[in-house]
Design the sequence.
C-alpha cells in the first residue's frame, strides 16, 4: 500500500523486472525532452509514469516507433503515458508557470 499499488499490480511489476519501464526515458527523449527536463520531473509523477510504462501492453509498438524515430507521430495512439506526456510538452511550450485548463486535462488525443 505504501507504493499506491494493488497487490496484483505489484506482482505484475515485479514479474516485468527492473527494466520494465526502460522505454519511458527513451520515449521522453524521442519527444524532445532533454536529460535536464527529464530530471526535473517530480519523483511522484515519474513513479506513476514508470508504473504505467511497466504495465503497458503495447511494448512492441513502442519499440518499433522508437527504433524508427516515429514515436512523436504515433505515441498518442498507444502510450499509457500519452496524456501526461502531452500535457508536459504543452507546459514546456508555454513556460514554467503554465497550468492546464480542465478542458486540456480531459482532452482525448486526436
Sequence:
Amino acid at each position: 500500500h505504501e507504493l499506491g499499488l494493488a497487490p496484483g499490480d505489484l506482482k505484475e511489476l515485479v514479474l516485468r523486472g527492473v527494466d520494465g519501464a526502460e522505454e519511458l526515458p527513451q520515449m521522453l527523449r524521442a519527444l524532445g525532452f532533454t536529460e535536464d527536463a527529464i530530471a526535473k520531473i517530480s519523483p511522484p509523477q515519474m513513479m506513476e509514469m514508470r508504473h504505467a510504462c511497466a504495465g503497458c501492453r503495447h511494448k512492441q509498438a513502442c519499440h518499433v516507433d522508437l527504433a524508427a524515430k516515429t514515436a512523436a507521430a504515433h505515441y498518442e495512439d498507444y502510450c499509457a503515458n500519452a496524456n501526461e506526456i502531452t500535457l508536459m510538452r504543452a507546459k514546456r511550450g508555454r513556460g514554467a508557470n503554465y497550468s492546464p485548463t480542465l478542458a486540456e486535462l480531459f482532452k482525448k488525443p486526436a
About this structure: The longest helix spans residues 82-94. Residues 38 and 63 are 20 Å apart (CA to CA). Helices lie at 7-16, 23-30, 35-39, 43-54, 59-68, 71-74, 82-94, 102-105. The two ends are 35 Å apart (CA to CA).
